[in-house]
From TrEMBL:
Residues 20-237 form the ABC transporter domain. PROSITE patterns: ABC_TRANSPORTER_1, ABC_TRANSPORTER_2. GO terms for molecular function: ATP binding; ATP hydrolysis activity. SUPFAM superfamilies: P-loop containing nucleoside triphosphate hydrolases. This is ABC transporter domain-containing protein. It comes from the Bacteria.
C-alpha cells in the first residue's frame, strides 16, 4: 500500500516562526526590475512550489535566499542552514561520489563525514555508487547524489532550482517519490522552482505563482499524498494555475476531466 505523506508542519503550532520571511524584496538588473516589493513566507516543514513564466525572477529569488546575491531593498531572512540543488547536479568530476556528498558537511572528522555521506547515499538509493566517479552516473543518479549532498548538512531550508527538469519522464516520477520520502524524513522546508504545473500539484503544500516580480497567486493544496493528477480537485487547480500563468491550452492538450473542470 502506498504511504500517505502529509505535511509535517501541519502538526506544529501555528505560532512557530517561518523558516523563510521575505519582506519588500527588490532586485533589479539595470532597468529590468526582476523582484518588486516581494513578500513571501515559508513555514517550517512546508513544501512550496514556485511557478512563473521564464524570466519571472524565480532563480533570482532562490539566489537571494541562498545568499548568492544581494537585494537592492527589502529583507530575506532564513532560519537555519540552507542547501541548494540545481537543475544540473554540479558534482565535482575529480572527486568520487561519496566525497562529493561529504562536501556538504563542514564539521566532523574525515571519517565521520565519509560515514554520514554514505548514509545519505543509502537514503537516496546510491549505496553501490559511493566509490565511483560522477561521470559514470546516469542523469537521475547524479541528481540523487546532488540531493544527498544538499541533505547531508540537515538543512532547515532546501532550495531546489528545477532539479528534475532535465530528467526523462520515468526518472522524474521516481525523483518525485524520492523527494517526498526524504522531505518527510528530514522535515526541511522546501522551496522548489519548477516550470511543471503537474510537478507542483503532485508535490507541494502550496503553489506560488510569480509574475512581474510579485506573488500573483498563492494556492494551498491540503490534499494527502501520493496524489493522482486525474483527481478532480487537482484538475481544477491545474486549470487555475494555467490561467494564472497566462496559458490558454487548446482542447487537444487537456484531458477530458480537465475540460469538464474548466467548462
Ligand atoms: N546577473 C544578472 N544580470 C543581468 N540580468 C539578470 C541577471 N540575473 C537574472 N537577470 C535577468 O533577470 C530576469 C529574471 O531571471 P531569472 O533567472 O530569475 O528568471 P526565472 O524565472 O528563473 O527564469 P527561467 O524560468 O527561464 O529560469 C531575466 O530577465 C534575466 O535576464
Amino acid at each position: 500500500m502506498a504511504t500517505r505523506l502529509n505535511a509535517p508542519h501541519a502538526l506544529r503550532a501555528p505560532t512557530v516562526p517561518p523558516t523563510v520571511q521575505v519582506r519588500g524584496l527588490r532586485r533589479a538588473f539595470g532597468d529590468t526590475v526582476v523582484l518588486d516589493d516581494l513578500d513571501l513566507d515559508v513555514a517550517p516543514g512546508e513544501l512550496v512550489a514556485l511557478l512563473g513564466r521564464s524570466g519571472s525572477g524565480k532563480s533570482t529569488l532562490l539566489r537571494l535566499l541562498a545568499g548568492l546575491d544581494a537585494p537592492d531593498a527589502g529583507t530575506a531572512e532564513v532560519d537555519g542552514v540552507t542547501s541548494v540543488a540545481f537543475q544540473e547536479p554540479r558534482l565535482l568530476p575529480w572527486r568520487r561520489v561519496a566525497q562529493n556528498v561529504a562536501l556538504g558537511l563542514r564539521t566532523g572528522s574525515r571519517r565521520e563525514r565519509d560515514e554520514r555521506a554514505r548514509q545519505l547515499l543509502g537514503e537516496v538509493g546510491l549505496t553501490e555508487k559511493a566509490d565511483v566517479w560522477p561521470v559514470t552516473l546516469s542523469g537521475g543518479q547524479a541528481q540523487r547524489a546532488s540531493l544527498a549532498r544538499a541533505l547531508v548538512s540537515e538543512p532547515g531550508l532546501l532550495l531546489l532550482d528545477e532539479p528534475f527538469s532535465a530528467l526523462d519522464a520515468l526518472t522524474r516520477i521516481e525523483m518525485h517519490d524520492l523527494l517526498l520520502r526524504v522531505w518527510a524524513r528530514h522535515r526541511a522546508s522546501v522551496l522548489l522552482v519548477t516550470h511543471d504545473v503537474d510537478e507542483a500539484l503532485l508535490l507541494a503544500d502550496r503553489v506560488i505563482v510569480l509574475d512581474q516580480g510579485r506573488v500573483a497567486h498563492s494556492l494551498r493544496l491540503d490534499l494527502p499524498r501520493p496524489r493522482a493528477l486525474h483527481d478532480p480537485r487537482l484538475v481544477a487547480h491545474r486549470a487555475t494555475l494555467l490561467d494564472q500563468l497566462g496559458v490558454r491550452p487548446s482542447s487537444a492538450t487537456l484531458t477530458s476531466t480537465a475540460q469538464e473542470a474548466i467548462s
